[in-house]
Every structure is written in structure tokens, then in C-alpha cells.
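note to self — DONT lose this again. spent like an hour looking for the file last time. sequence + predicted structure for the chain T wanted, 211 res
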Amino acid sequence: MGFYSTHVFPRVLDWSLSDATVEEQRRAALAPLRGRVLEVGFGTGLNLACYPNTVTRLTAIDSVRMLPDRVAKRISEAHMPIELFLLDASGTLPFEDRSFDGVVTTFTLCSIRDVLSALAEIRRVLKPDHPFAFLEHGRSDDPRVIKWQDRLNPIQRVVACGCNLNRPIESLIRRSGFEIVKIERYLMPGVPRIFAEMYRGLARPAEGLAQ
């Protein structure tokens, strides 16, 4: 990993996703979670202050360690015990089937290289009829915006260390064996529309599919 991806980008990411508007969206997305929860794509720990008291234990996993001093402070202030894992190159989650009462991703599915495999792993470790909560940016439903998202995506992937502007989040979740229980589409205020197309909702493993 280079200097930019290790030291510069994590600070830019932390700053850009830490304002009050985004925090409000995080709290809304995480509100339904209960019990033992897995967070995939922990980043700099910005979700920690937004989890409801009904979450009793958090397991967090990411492929990189970002801003360890800042993360340690946020962990020390959290209301629940937290365990951190580093994802290995296989992309397989190191947990038993049906281990968690809930799984969450926030601003994560845009950057995972093999997103369908990652979603299949999320489904595997989630208990039946329990929530997968997501807050993600992605592909617009406006053809004019889609054109610009597709055009600028190669640049975005370089500048934002693998982040994609144009992933159809709802479609990807459905294709991975989830049933969408609730979804809200909206624009994040104060953000250019190519970045502002938001997907917030809940899914659960679809019935009738083996896990």
C-alpha cells in the first residue's frame, strides 16, 4: 500500500463521512439492529457512536487498518464490547454459518472487488429472518446521471482507492439471495449528484434458499 492509500485517503474519507447529516443517516440505518452484530467494512469506526443500545456485541472486519489511534479512541467510547478482525485475501468471513443477529455495511459495497461473493458470505453468517442493514451510495435511476457516473468511474476508482460510483446496490443485494424488506432511495444533501445517490434499507435471507 502506498503513502496516499495508507495516510492521505483514510483521513479524507473520515472527514467526508463524519458530518452531522451522514451521522443522522447512519443512526437511521442502524436503529433496527439487536444482539450480536457484524460490521463488514469497519473503516475508521464512524458507526460506533451510532449503534443503538440494543446492540450488545459488535464484531468488525475490514481488509485494512485505518487510522489506528483514532479508531482506538472511538472503540474506548463505545457502549458495547468490540472485536476486530482483518479480512484475509480469500475474502471468506472467518465465522460459522448463522452466527450473527444482524450484519451491517455502510459505504462499503462500493469498494469490495468481488461484491457478489462478499454478499453471499454476509448471507451465510446471518441468522435466518434477521436483518442485513445497509447504507450505501450507488447507481442513479436518472439516465443523465448514470452517463456521468459511468464516464467518471475509472477516475473515481483511482482517486478513492477502489470505490465505484455506479454499482446498482439494490439489484446486487437481491441477486445474492436476499429479500429486500425496506429500502429508501434519496439524495444526500450538499453532495454532487453522481456521489449523492443513496440506498438505505434492510434485507434478510430469502426463504427457500439453502445457506
